[in-house]
Write a structure and sequence with these properties.
10 strands, Chemotaxis protein chec, two-stranded antiparallel ribbon, alpha+beta
């Protein structure tokens, strides 16, 4: 694991390798053209291409291209007879936008994604493991305030075998 404050680490697998993991919270501002400057520590993992799409809780999910391809393949395995699976697939993919950051690490947030997440200028960009999330700053602060006590009070095992 990297030094304290490092935004990504290698999640070690059995062979000592692994996939990058996005960590931390950053507070960039959108510029006048609604471009988001990706945090410097996220840029290398996203430089070759990324997919932005609607996330749950009204944020934007940002996936490295290879991670999104893995997710898409999993979604394709869902039964077409499941209305919930069809709905999820439609919402997630119809809002998706593939992008390649410019040399300054900027990506433009399209109108529909900005409207979905209620983004204006002030945003929070959080590392969420295999993805990055982009939140309206006020929405993120409200979400965090509402959930921090629940997190601290968790008395049961949420993820089996984790603790």
């Amino acid at each position: 694991m990297g030094p304290l404050g490092e935004t990504w680490v290698e999640a070690l697998g059995p062979d000592g390798g692994g996939d990058p993991m996005f960590l931390g919270t950053h507070y960039p501002r959108l510029d006048d053209k609604f471009r988001l400057t990706l945090p410097a520590r996220f840029r290398e993992q996203l430089a070759t291409g990324l997919v932005m799409t609607r996330g749950q809780e009204r944020c934007i999910y940002v996936f490295p291209m290879d991670e999104f391809e893995r997710i898409h393949e999993s979604l394709r395995q869902a039964p077409m007879t499941s209305k919930q699976a069809r709905d999820y697939l439609r919402i997630m993919l119809s809002g998706a936008s593939d992008e390649k950051p410019d040399k300054q690490g900027r990506v433009t947030l399209n109108t529909s994604l900005r409207a979905y997440a209620g983004l204006d200028k002030e945003v929070a960009v959080i590392g969420a493991g295999s993805r990055v999330e982009v939140w309206d700053l006020n929405s993120w602060e409200t979400y965090l305030a509402d959930r921090e006590q629940e997190f601290a009070d968790t008395a049961e095992e949420v993820v089996p075998g984790l603790f």
